[in-house]
């Protein structure tokens, strides 16, 4: 996709770079951040050969049907607010999907977007700390977002078929490449504009209100998977809310309330 197509749809200020193929937009941007690349650079690729997901997983990144993008921020925020960047990106991605008629997009804590019961967006934020003085906070943050825009005719590979979905089904995929590129550019531009508006007021955390409205989990029973052990805990917990620091607030069967700041949950049907 030509970067001009994105730029002409943008209302906020970003430096856009578009590539045909990269290993991982996150990895490239992290490397360039270490070399001093400027704040607010966005890198977009048609496909990734080593797309990365959370917890060491890979991210399926074929050509044509998806958006693979990362942006570099040099935020003047304390490290403990880095989680907010991911939540802000989730809200921005959900709004962009809704804006192009692909929703309703719902957010599954902490950073997945679901449409029609399937995961359509994954977000991976990676941060670097100031080498000279880590207490100075973040040197940079790279926010990477992968969006499955259309399902392929043959569907997703068997190993992710149960979970992965797309914003639009195969039948809604425009036949002409220019039309597909135009829609992808609109999604990217809406996402960046939305993120920009939130980012300007990140510490006020007002966007967390939208995060809660779009939450897939509030009111549901879930199983918690610890991020360190990747193991399911046996007891289900009830999600009673999401706090302003993007923490999941859960209640166990004895009524004890806990705030989870990291990890992953799976929705338990009752
Ligand atoms: C997840 O769901 O576990 C997170 C997936 C994040 C994927 C995106 S695609 C663009 C950027 N580059 C990567 O290698 N990963 C992120």
Structure, explained:
- 23% of the residues lie in helices and 29% in strands.
- By secondary structure, it is of the alpha+beta class.
- The protein starts with a helix and ends with a strand.
- The structure holds biotin.
- Biotin binds next to α2, β3, β6 and β7.
Low-confidence stretches at least 5 residues in length (pLDDT < 50)? none
Q: How much helix, percentage-wise, in residues?
A: 10-25%
Arrangement of strands in the largest sheet: 1-2-3-7-6-5-4
Radius of gyration: 18 Å
Q: Count the strands?
A: 12
Q: What's this, in brief?
A:
With 270 residues, the protein is α+β, with helices and mostly antiparallel strands.
Secondary structure blueprint with pairings:
Elements: H1 3-7, E1 15-22, H2 25-34, E2 41-48, E3 66-73, H3 82-99, E4 106-108, E5 112-115, E6 118-129, E7 138-148, H4 177-199, H5 207-213, E8 221-225, E9 237-242, E10 248-251, E11 257-260, E12 264-267
Helix pairs in contact: 3-4, 3-5
Biotin binds next to helix 2, strand 3, strand 6 and strand 7.
Q: Which short descriptors sum up this protein?
A:
270 residues, alpha+beta, 7-stranded mixed sheet, 5 helices, 12 strands, 29% strand, binds biotin
């Amino acid at each position: 996709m030509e970067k001009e197509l994105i730029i002409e749809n943008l209302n906020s200020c970003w430096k856009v770079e578009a590539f045909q193929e990269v290993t991982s937009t996150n990895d490239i941007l992290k490397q360039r951040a270490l070399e001093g690349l400027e704040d607010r650079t966005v890198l977009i690729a048609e496909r990734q050969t080593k797309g990365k997901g959370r917890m060491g997983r890979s991210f399926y990144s074929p050509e044509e049907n998806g958006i693979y993008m990362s942006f570099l921020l040099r935020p003047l925020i304390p490290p403990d607010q880095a989680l907010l960047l991911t939540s802000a990106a989730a809200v921005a991605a959900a709004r962009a999907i809704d804006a192009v008629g692909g929703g309703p997009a719902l957010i599954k804590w902490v950073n997945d977007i679901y449409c029609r019961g399937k995961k359509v967006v994954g977000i991976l934020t990676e941060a670097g700390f100031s080498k000279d003085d880590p207490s100075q906070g973040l040197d940079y943050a790279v926010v990477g977002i992968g969006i499955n825009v259309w399902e392929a005719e043959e569907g997703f590979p068997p190993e992710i078929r149960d979970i992965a979905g797309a914003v639009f089904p195969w039948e809604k995929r425009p036949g002409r490449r220019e039309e597909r590129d135009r829609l992808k550019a609109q999604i990217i531009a809406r996402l960046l504009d939305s993120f920009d508006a939130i980012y300007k007021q990140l510490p006020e955390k007002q966007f967390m209100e939208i995060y809660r409205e779009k939450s897939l989990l509030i009111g549901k029973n879930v199983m918690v998977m610890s991020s360190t052990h990747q193991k399911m805990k046996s007891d289900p917990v009830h999600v009673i809310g999401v706090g302003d620091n993007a923490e999941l607030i859960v209640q166990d069967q004895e009524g004890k309330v806990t705030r989870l700041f990291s990890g992953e949950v799976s929705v338990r049907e009752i």
